[in-house]
Amino acid sequence: MTYSEDKALKALGEISDPIKSGDIISAGRLASLELVDGTLQAVLQISPPDADAFFPIRTQAQEALETLDGVNKARVILSAHKQGPQIGGARKRGNPHQPKRPDGVQGDADVKRVIAISSAKGGVGKSTLAANLAVALAKTGMKVGLLDADIHGPSLPMLMGTSGTLARAIPVGARKIIVPVEAHGLKTMSIGYLTPNDDPIVWRGPMVQGAMSRMLWDVDWGELDLLLIDMPPGTGDAQLGLAQDIKPAGAIIISTPQDLALLDARKGVAMFRKVDIPVLGLIENMAVFTCPTCGSAHHIFGTGGAKRDAEAMDVPYLGAAPLHMDIRASGDAGEPVAKNDGEIADIFATLAKTVFDKIEQNEGETT
């Protein structure tokens, strides 16, 4: 049997809209519907505040479309793209993100310190380093949380071995609070815990920024000595908004020794300084590779660049982590290497101590 668009529209027309009266078709949600090589993709237009209400609708729509003849797989995308107001023929430019703290209980009320882990550039191992750093800090006895703020490419569920886990919400007063997922001595949260599958999240800036802030405010973090935020790559609206709305106590920059990565690291330092967030230091990742066969050291991404640039930017150099097979393998397995004993775990333990000492030093300087 062949695919019929009329039947697809009919299937979607049987799904009730959670915000407006009637179904999602009559409510004008369907922005596009296209079948390509057996995959039927539907785009639903929603408003950023309605995202939570539409996650189950997306799942329901995908399941309905996948029952149709000629459809091998269905993909339903939630989109919040909307043209801004026009004044005199030109778009009015203003604050691209305006998330507002909800009324009632605040999930981060008992979090003592929030620290941003940033790279400004993707591909430098920031998330892997953030996960191991968080685990190493927790091993000292501190209460530590880790928030994966990358909406488009969440990696924390894989690094923590919690892929497929869906977070639950509990009522607290007049609102619901999300319970963080606990793993390896940490309280963790990621958009990966709020979506039922691996489909991409295609959101514009305002919706992304709102989601990042709400994962701080709407999550029951409880008492934490330290909450690390694994920042998304870049220095755009999402990063600036997160820095301004959450106002971390400090930021740590992650970079490889490569000149290209250090170029973006410098941009990250400049970004945090513009919003008056102290840069606590720079950690050099993938600094050296030691051949497991012959034992010789290889500086694949160069040598000395990170320390040199840290000094040039007047940023403390906090230390280095190697390019090592155990770090990669443990991340893929969802078992951070920092939780174990051994040479690599000791490196992260030393980094954790240096980072926390710098945090305390900065607090002493600002009090």
Helix content: 25-40%
Q: Poorly predicted ranges (pLDDT <50, ≥5 residues)?
A: 81-98
Q: Major sheet: size, sense and barrel closure?
A: 8 strands, mixed
Structural class: alpha/beta
Question: How many individual domains?
Answer: 2
Describe this protein's structure.
It is globular and about 65 Å long. The termini are far apart. Strand 4 and strand 5 form a beta hairpin. By secondary structure, it is α/β, with parallel strands linked by helices. About 5% of the residues have low confidence. It folds into 2 domains: 73 residues, GMP Synthetase, Chain A, domain 3; 253 residues, P-loop containing nucleotide triphosphate hydrolases (Rossmann fold, 3-Layer(aba) Sandwich). It has 10 helices and 17 strands. The protein has an 8-stranded mixed β-sheet, sandwiched between helices. A 3-stranded mixed β-sheet has the order 1-2-3, covered by helices on one side.
